[in-house]
Amino acid sequence: MSVNALYTDLSGYYDLMCVDIDYQAQSHAIRRLHQIFGNGGTTHLDLACGTGPHVRHFIDFGYASSGLDINQPMLDIATTRCSEAHFTLQDMSDFKANEPQDLITCFLYSIHYNDGIEKLKACISSAHCALKSGGIFCFNAVDKDKIDNALSVKHSAQQESDLFTFRSGWHYSGQGEKQSLRLSIEKANAEGTQLWNDEHPMVAVSFAELSALLAPHFEVHVFEHNYEKIIPWDNASGNAIFVCVKV
Fold first, then answer.
1. Which one, out of 28, 111, 169, 215, has a CA that is 20 to 30 A from the CA of 192?
2. Which Pfam families match (predicted)?
């Protein structure tokens, strides 16, 4: 398989790439936050839903769950995983829900895929319009001013005779509204090793800037990036969970 084929068919490796993510813990934590801050409803939309693992958990929790993504092959996998859900091919920077929502989520720092402040503002506005009164918008984010370009995460996973090694890390130049997610996939087997690298452009924003963007639309609560306990953000860490209530 060529490098280009690996790039084109990245959707086929997405679940393997994310094999160490505890989707159930993340979904349960946001469900708890929704129970505390939400309006008691059960309509749910997941932005940048990928192959639908979070949607699967929310359906199992009893939600009428749906998802959107800009990658159709990802949505094809999601539809197989969650046949009960409604999925649409949309850009979360400018989306419309098929019905008013009680909960909108965006996991795995995907809020940063809004490439620039204007698109981020449009996403926030779209989420506000799509929510019912008392509905909440939950997502996790990284503060551009706390990014350490030298840090990255790495994990490996076996698939039949292939050993995959995945690496990812944030990079920010120190100025401007653009940061990137640097990603590499290494595939090794008896025939040799292949390496694929990419850099995903993303919006860079400080938590102070992000809170200011959200404030005209929502009552904003910020929590530590901890899916086991609900702890208010300490105003120091560079990762956090935002809970935004439509009032």
1. 169
2. Methyltransf_25
